[in-house]
Structure formats: structure tokens, C-alpha cells
Amino acid sequence: MKNKKSLIILMAVLFLAILAGCNSKGKTEDAKINKEPYSDQQSLLGTYVQVRIYDDGKEEVLEKAFARVKELGDKITVNEKGSEIDEINEQAGIKPVKVSDDIYPLLKRAYEYSEDSSGGFDMAIGPITQLWRIGFDDARKPSQEEIDQALKLVDYHKVKLNDEDKTVYLEEKGMQLDLGAIAKGFITDEVVKVLKDNGVTTAIVDLGGNVYVLGHSPRGKDMDWNVGIQDPNKARNTVIGTVQESNKTLVTSGIYERFLEVDGKKYHHLFDPKTGYPFDNDIAGVTVITNKSIDGDGLSTAVFSMGVKKGLEYAEGLKDVDVIFVTKEDQVYVSKDIESVFELGKDSGYTMGDRKDLK
């Protein structure tokens, strides 16, 4: 875009380029929108959380947004004192656990994604993730015997939810929920609710790569945000291309995020519930674009488990869902609805793949 000044917002997994018009006065016709946002960034949920608010006079909403993140994080994070998920895991095979109104909808959605993906996403993957511990200082490659034993406890069908009492029961001792693949999306959506409830119309929420772009870009009325897609094979904040979106969330999963290297082989943190090992397919990274971040979270794991061809077909059968796949062979594939708006960077080193070559 000519004669435009780029305002770059750097984020851990996604890179948002907000193009601000050089003659902009920092407002829209309906409300004053600042060119420079009120912003805060904190280390929470094992990642960093950043909120940027562009509405003039709404700086105090930042505190409310972060309070909500902390409140939910305390209830969801495993190995955290007072965590509701911890209590469920501790009572596995013993008794049902009543959970709060905040957490029960998250568990319901996690179960639905476990069903919809035929177990590609499994909310009961905890015994496997706790074995490998990828992303932690004590990460290791378990023995095959350990993996085989843990796999016997990975089965979302044995997670019993009681809608009337809002209780959760894991049928076998040793079972463990791990909602890490969906929790950040859930919390992102809750933060967006806080912003909207407090009159914020233009903002960016980023929970370690779960990004929501609220409203329209500050560069002009009804103009979309220009969002860069992370290169899964290079340093953070390096992009392969861009899409333009408003009131959407973008969630990226990739093998570049966290991994363990043993004897020259890298093991990433996205686990196959059927094998107990990281998924082994043609995907280096996938970005899912949806209306709700919890859906993007669940779907990013689900389509990753399917590989590019089946993942594309699955996503295109869903409403308001778009995907961008980056393969290990440096090919990029996008769902049909965004083929005309996705722009691949000329110097990205990637090429657009031909669907006819997918197997």
C-alpha cells in the first residue's frame, strides 16, 4: 500500500502490522480512536499476555482485562494451588468434582472437540504430556514401556460430565485432563468480553499467539487489520504473508514453538493421543481464523492431527473457519474462502502449493 506508514506490533507467535495512514488524525467518525494504544504486557499462563486498547479514555479497562486473565488462569492451570483442573485430576477414579460456572463451559467445549476430531484432540492427554514435559526444564523422552502404560489412561470417553450438577469425573485413577491446547483460546474470548462490556471498540488481545483483533484498524473507518502469519521455520516475528481481518481471532500451532531434541531428533509438543508421540506428518505450522479463539485453539490441534489434505477438507466443511497451512517442504496452502485475500510475501522463501499434489 503506497504512502502509508507502518506501525508494527510484535508478538510471540503472530506478527500484526497495523498500517496507520500518514494523514490520520487518530479517530473515526463514531468515536475517538488513538493512533497509539494504551498497552500492557505481563507474563502469565506460562507465556506473555498483551492487550492494546485504541479507544480514547479506556486505559482503565486494561486492569480489568488482566484481572480476568489471572482469575481464570488460577482455576485452569495444572500444578497450581487452588486449580479446579488439578482437583479433578487428583480425584480421578475416586469421585466427581463440582466446578465453577467459569470452568464447566470450557470442559464441555473440550469434550465436543475431542468428539468432533475423533480423538485427534483429546482432553485427557495429560498422562502423555506429563511424561514428556516438553517446554519444561525436566523434559525427557520416555521409554516405550512408559508411553504404552500412559496411553491406557488417555481416553476422553472416560471423562464424565454432569450438566445438572456441573461435575466432572475421570473414571480411572491416573487419568489427567490437560486443557493447554484450548485454555488460552477460552481465556482470550473472556478478555474480549471484558473489553466489549466496558465499551472498547478497537483493540488487540494476544495470549502468547492466540490473537483477537477487535473492531477495525485505527488507520480508518471500516478498514481491516493487516495481520502477518508467523514463519514456522524462522525467528519469531518473521512472517510468510498477510491476511486482512476484523473481529476475528487467529490461532497458530506449530512445531517451532516448543520442542525437545534427543540424539539429533526434535520432538515437538503437539501429541498424537493414539501413539503417545508428537504428530508426524507434513505440517510445520497451521493458523486457524475463526470468530472465537476457543474454536481456533481446538481446531488448530484437530486439523494438525489430520495433515494438510484432510485438514483443509475438514476446515472447509465448517462455517466461519479458514486455515493456512505451512508444510515442511516450504509450501503454503490456504482454505478456499481466503485464497483471494491471503498475500504471500515475495521474499518469504515459500511458494503456494497445488492441492492436486496433496496425498
Explain this structure to me?
With 359 residues, this protein is α+β, with helices and mostly antiparallel strands. It has helices at residues 61-76, 84-90, 103-116, 126-132, 144-151, 183-197, 293-316, and strands at residues 4-9, 15-21, 33-44, 47-55, 97-98, 159-162, 167-170, 203-207, 210-214, 225-230, 239-245, 248-254, 259-262, 265-268, 283-290, 322-327, 331-334, 343-344, 351-352. The strands form 4 sheets. A 9-stranded mixed sheet has the order 3-4-8-9-12-15-16-17-19, covered by helices on one side. Strand 16 (322-327) and strand 17 form a beta hairpin. Helix 3 (103-116) runs parallel beside helix 7 and helix 6 (183-197) packs across helix 7 (293-316). The protein is globular. The chain starts with a strand and ends in a 7-residue tail after the last strand.
Structure at a glance:
Helices cover 25% and strands 29% of the residues.
Spell out the key features of this protein.
359 residues, alpha+beta, nine-stranded mixed beta sheet, five-stranded antiparallel beta sheet
End-to-end separation in angstroms reads 37 Å
Fraction in helix: 25-40%
The rough form would be described as globular
Q: State the assembly state of the protein chains.
A: single chain
With helices defined by DSSP (H or I, 4 residues minimum), what is the helix count?
Answer: 7
Total beta strand runs = 19
Main-sheet strand order equals 3-4-8-9-12-15-16-17-19
Order of helices and strands: EEEEHHEHHHEEHEEEEEEEEHEEEE
Integer-rounded radius of gyration:
21 Å
The main β sheet shows up as:
9 strands, mixed
